[in-house]
Every structure is written in structure tokens, then in C-alpha cells.
């Protein structure tokens, strides 16, 4: 049975699955019934060094990145975005990323998984209009869910959200349930982690 986490809690993925090599990180959400423009939430990942910043633009995994071999994947094959879901309709994961832990560079200490609302300011949208947001980590080799974090951001005006992160500590891979919102959408999130999003 997967472990359900609260905001700020951490868990060792390595202890839960000692032979863990590859994980699927699923993000999901429902949009509160509103009239007007449809919501488009986008999941992204930032591969961070010890300084809390990306090493370069190649450490930003998102729907608009250059494809490698037809895939939205880092050049080293460590993190793959499985595709952009523009509606969030249906049950289960709305967007997901697959992380091959064996290929993550030794100088990458943390991988943060985020979601932002596309054109949020223009459309007058925020995470206060999103319900049932969650992030879950699954052992990709046997499809066993290791942990889940259900995020409650009541009446939030934020347009970007750190859902959670996997990180290295004492030779283990761990998961951190973050659930922290920010204003400024994708551009602010990029700037936070060292990507120049002004282009």
C-alpha cells in the first residue's frame, strides 16, 4: 500500500524499493466547474545541482523542449516528459514524467516537479480554481505506487506550484512533498531555478 504524505514530509524511496532504478512521477488535478476559457496545466521538471539551480537549459524538462529522437527527453536519457495534456480530463495522472535514476548525473542533487497554468494571467486563472491536485511516485518496473501527496491549496491565487521533488541523501533517493505555490507562472518558476525565461 502506498504511503500517503502530508506537506513537508519526506520518505526514502530506496528503502521502500531497494532495487529501484526507474520511477514514473504522475501529476493530476481537476478543474473546478467554471464558465469561460478551458484550463491548461503543464507539468515540468528541473534538475538541480547543489546550489539549487539548473546546470543549464538542458536541465529543464517541459512540453516545449527540443525533442531527442522524437521524445521530450534530456540528452542523457534521465528524464522524459510523456506529453502535454491540454484538458486535464479524466481520472488518474494528467501528465507524467519518467526518471531513470541510473542515468541522472552525479552532480544533480534534486529533481523538482512543478505545474503551471498556461496563460494564467491572461485567462484570469489560478490554482484556487483547481481541486484534487496530487503527485505520486511509481516504481516504473513493477507499477507499484510508492508514495502519494494530495495537495490542498485552498483559494490560492498562485499560478505555479512545486508539487514535490526526488533528491539524493546518504546514498538514497528520497521524495519531498513540497506543495508550495508561487505567482508569475512558468516564467517565475524558471527564474527561480536558474532558467532565463524572458526569451
First-residue to last-residue Cα separation: 44 Å
The CATH homologous superfamily corresponds to sav2460 like domains
Number of structural units classed as domains? 1
Q: What is the helical fraction, as a range of percent?
A: under 10%
Shape: globular
* Sequence stretches where pLDDT stays below 50 over 5 or more residues: none
Number of strands: 13
What is the CATH architecture annotation? Sandwich
Put simply, the count of helices is 3
Q: Tell me the radius of gyration.
A: 16 Å
Q: Give the ordered list of helices and strands.
A: EEHEEEEEEEHEEEEH
Provide the spatial order of strands within the biggest beta sheet: 1-11-10-3-8-7-6
CATH class: Mainly Beta
Alpha-beta classification: mainly beta
Beta-strand portion reads 35-45%
* Oligomeric status: single chain
Instruction: Predict the CATH topology.
Output: Lipoxygenase-1
**Biggest β-sheet description:** 7 strands, mixed
Write the topology of this structure:
Layout: E1 3-5, E2 10-12, H1 13-16, E3 22-31, E4 41-48, E5 60-61, E6 72-73, E7 79-81, E8 95-100, E9 110-117, H2 120-123, E10 130-139, E11 144-151, E12 160-169, E13 172-182, H3 185-192
Parallel strand pairs: 1-11
Antiparallel strand pairs: 2-13, 3-8, 3-10, 4-5, 4-9, 6-7, 7-8, 9-12, 10-11, 12-13
Amino acid at each position: 500500500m502506498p504511503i500517503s504524505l502530508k506537506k513537508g514530509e519526506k520518505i526514502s524511496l530506496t528503502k521502500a524499493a531497494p532495487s529501484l532504478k526507474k520511477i514514473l512521477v504522475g501529476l493530476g488535478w481537476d478543474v473546478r466547474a467554471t464558465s469561460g476559457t478551458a484550463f491548461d496545466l503543464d507539468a515540468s521538471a528541473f534538475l538541480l545541482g547543489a546550489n539549487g539551480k539548473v546546470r543549464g537549459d538542458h536541465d529543464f524538462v517541459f512540453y516545449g523542449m527540443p525533442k531527442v529522437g522524437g521524445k521530450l527527453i534530456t540528452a542523457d536519457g534521465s528524464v522524459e516528459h510523456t506529453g502535454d495534456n491540454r484538458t486535464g480530463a479524466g481520472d488518474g495522472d494528467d501528465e507524467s514524467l519518467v526518471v531513470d535514476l541510473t542515468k541522472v548525473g552525479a552532480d544533480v542533487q534534486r529533481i523538482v516537479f512543478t505545474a503551471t497554468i498556461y496563460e494564467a494571467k491572461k485567462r484570469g486563472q489560478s490554482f484556487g480554481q483547481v481541486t484534487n491536485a496530487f503527485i505520486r511516485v511509481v516504481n516504473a518496473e513493477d507499477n507499484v505506487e510508492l508514495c502519494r501527496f494530495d495537495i490542498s491549496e485552498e483559494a490560492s491565487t498562485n499560478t505555479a506550484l512545486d508539487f514535490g521533488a526526488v533528491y539524493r541523501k546518504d546514498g538514497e533517493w528520497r521524495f519531498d512533498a513540497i506543495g508550495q505555490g508561487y505567482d508569475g507562472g512558468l516564467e517565475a518558476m524558471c527564474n527561480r531555478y536558474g532558467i532565463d525565461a524572458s526569451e
